[in-house]
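Input/output pair, single chain:
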Amino acid sequence: MLMYHPFESPTAYNPGWRDQLFSADAVRRQGVVRRKKGAIHREVGLTLLRAEVQARGFQLFDVGTDYLIVCHSRPITRIG
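Output:
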């Protein structure tokens, strides 16, 4: 479940940063991409990130000071 954050929109939209995020090796390997929340809000905004993740069929998690993008749609089970 994602929490509300005061900066839903980016302070400056950066399509190059978004493209770089989704071209990471972890994306191609169906792995996990982790980014600091501050960077997400500064570069692309949470609303756009959610849309990009959903369009790709990925999963987005709010974990402490980071967002985790799981680059596949298979089930995830918490074991601890």
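Residues 32 and 70 are 5 Å apart (CA to CA). The mean pLDDT is 86.
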